[in-house]
Amino acid sequence: MNELKFEDFKVNQLNVHIMRTDKFKTTTMVIQLEQDLKEETVTPTALIPFILKRGCSKYPTTQELRQYLDSLFGSVFGADVIKKGEKQIIQLQLEIANEKYLSDPTPLLQKGIEFLGEVMTKPLVEDNGFSSNYVKSEVEILKNKISSLIDDKIRYASQRVTEEMCKNEPYRLLAYGRAEELAHIDPVHLYTYYQQLLNENPIDIYVVGDVEPKEITDGISRFFSFTRNKVKDLPFNPVQKTEIKENLVIDQMKVGQGKLNIGLRTHMTLIDNDYENLLVYNGILGGFPHSKLFVNVREKASLAYYAVSRLESHKGILMMMSGIETDKFDQAVEIMKKQLQLMRDGEISEIELSQTKASLRNQLLETNDNARTMIDFAYNSEITGKKRALEEILSQIEAVTKEDVVRIAEKVEIDTIYFLRDEEEK
Amino acid sequence: MEQIRHEQINETLYYEKLPNGLDVYVLPKHGFSKTYATFTTKYGSIDNHFQVPGKEEVKVPDGIAHFLEHKMFEQESGDVFNEFANYGASANAFTSFDRTAYLFTSTGHVKENLTTLINFVQDPYFTEENVEKEKGIIGQEIKMYDDNADWRVYFGLIENMYQHHPVKIDIAGTVESISKITKDMLYTCYETFYHPSNMLLFVVGAVNPEEIFQLVRENQAAKNYEQQPEIKRFFEEEPTGVAKAQSVREMSVAMPKVMFGYKEKRIDISGDALLQKELTTQLLLDILLGPSSDLYQSLYEQQLINDTFGTDYSGEVQYGFSVIGGDTPDPEQLVQRVVDGLEQAKEKGIRTDAFELAKKKKIGAFLRSLNSIEFIANSFTKYKFNDTDLFEIVPTLEKITIEDVNVRLKEHIQKEQLSVSIIRPL
Fold this sequence. Notes:
Strand order of the largest sheet of chain B: 1-2-3-11-4-10-9
Order of helices and strands of chain A: EEEHHEEHEEHHHHEHEEHHEEHHHHHE
Strand order of the largest sheet of chain A: 1-2-8-3-5-4
Oligomer: heterodimer
Mean pLDDT of chain A: 96
Largest interface: A-B, 75 and 70 residues
Structural class of chain B: alpha+beta
Helix content of chain B: 40-55%
Shape of chain B: globular
Number of strands of chain A: 13
Low-confidence stretches of chain A: none
Distance between the termini of chain A: 63 Å
Mean pLDDT of chain B: 96
Shape of chain A: globular
Radius of gyration of chain A: 23 Å
Radius of gyration of chain B: 23 Å
Largest sheet of chain B: 7 strands, mixed
Number of helices of chain B: 15
């Protein structure tokens, strides 16, 4: 029962993945609808989940919909849009209590599947379009969501450096789309576009919990009946810029702390054979509190509270990040660049290597204790088309040598140094 | 070793009080690969004036509990992060108003990691030099929070509500207040608050209770702790009324943010009565202002709120307050509409159907939270320090009646106890 594995099924050209486990007290369901991240469709795709969340033909008002969820012991329903590399993904998710642990034994799971089916396949429609009311109101809300990116300076700096690095690549786009395009969204066109997505884009449904697979597949074939044409193949093929020249960008704003983000190109993604080597490289550089960035920028130089590196392996970008005093910019950049050089020079101790492997192993094994992270991990195989078992990644990590890491270090190069600083003149 | 069985949710908790006064709890979590342990002292940012009977009365600079938390990670032998990293564990700590918690998660070597956790927290190593060095790091942590508008609007509200109580002091202190911290002050705080009789160890996950108890018993028996009399904590008398009805601050954000709420008049209750008060207030806020309520839907329709809007209630022995708010184009109008809605509800009372739904929803939410071993350990400790019990939540909820909620509504929602904190764009 507790062997953690997804069983795969095909229902109405939907990919259904079910994991039976009794370690959780709830059942988690996630629907993922995949689209290529591109200028023409990014904004309409972004808007759709927020409209679906407002109501459907069975629960036309948001209040009716919310109250129905409350009646299912407060099932948590979410609709969102995310970006993974150069893919944009609409996610609908529901987490519902397992009645086994409630004093009221009424079965909840079928109701949950039915609910998701209603929301996804029978939205509120008027005059062949989405409800104009919901479209109008969600356009405004999404506009605000996009502009409020600036409220969180750490996230803002990450987005700015991404835009600068990927000026001519789809990856520069936000998952939420472009504010200036929202004004032109038309409810009828949007609904037609959604029908097209439902008809031909890859859709994966994940279920994790103490469940009977047959009950799930029966429920899905009953409540997810809609026209499915031949499903499009959306190859995993993020744009890789090859000619890199170091670029410096400075933005000024009223802030107290400067945010330094250095974006690097790794020239590889999670489907490459070097992926595990890259994971170890990033871990030694800045993934953990024992890593070079934490030890040298924070502990030794006292320049920062956070000094880390993060990998976006669907695109192949690595980001070093730190929050510093404005006048410490040069010193911080120098220390960070020095760490990159040490990696290239093979100045990596046995302890750094073994601690990083142990920490990565722990991080990967921990994903098994959370339904969402297990789904996320499994879905990576689906969108890249390359199946990777956790055990396989773990054993590859074990085998990584210092020379492998140095080989990665030689490929990684700085693309853009970005600094968000205060408004004082330099 | 005492065994506490919770049949309905199928969990068993093990407990023992050690001779030196340390409370130890272990919760084996079926099917989990990860273990999470927290070692928590009942000592937080509000404990800035205290006395151990027989010793001198002491007042300490703001932010010292948090400073101490940072410094604990440094050992004579080096950085304790390295010891955890050897076994791949991920270690961390946090300081709140009333507690400081040290923690790790790991998917293996639990005994080694647990030994490291207990030993480093029980072995302080402060020098003039390492204390000075930390000031730069914490200075940047403070500046990071200063630039964080969501934190500032929340903290601004607490500052408005309280006239003297140290809950109004920022947990990390200020750059100025931490500049006064010395190694001797850290030792004084350490010796006062890190006695085992003031601490609680919680281990949850992939563990065998008997093995854990044996390890902790032996570890503690090998250390010499003299009995410590109860610590006296001094708090200036806090007047009932709020310090300030409103505050406005300008920051670089896209849209205004507002947080407002009611300062509790009646405090000084603990145990089951406190838990009942907290749950009743949370139900009340959810019924009147949750996503299923009339008011929420009408505010959302008019775009006075978006999905950042939420409510919360903190009920501690010494202080209590509700927090309502989010991003809004018009803070004054939003506050007015919510206050009017709450006043009307006082006249009309709560609807039975809404009450029943809110209760169901809260029971479901509790069940969901039990999937997170981090939640279990952190919340259990928080409740225990208030003489209440996390696992009493569902039985207590089941006892709450609609009359209780109506009484609580009239008691908590009182216009003169209202305070408002606003952030406006520059």
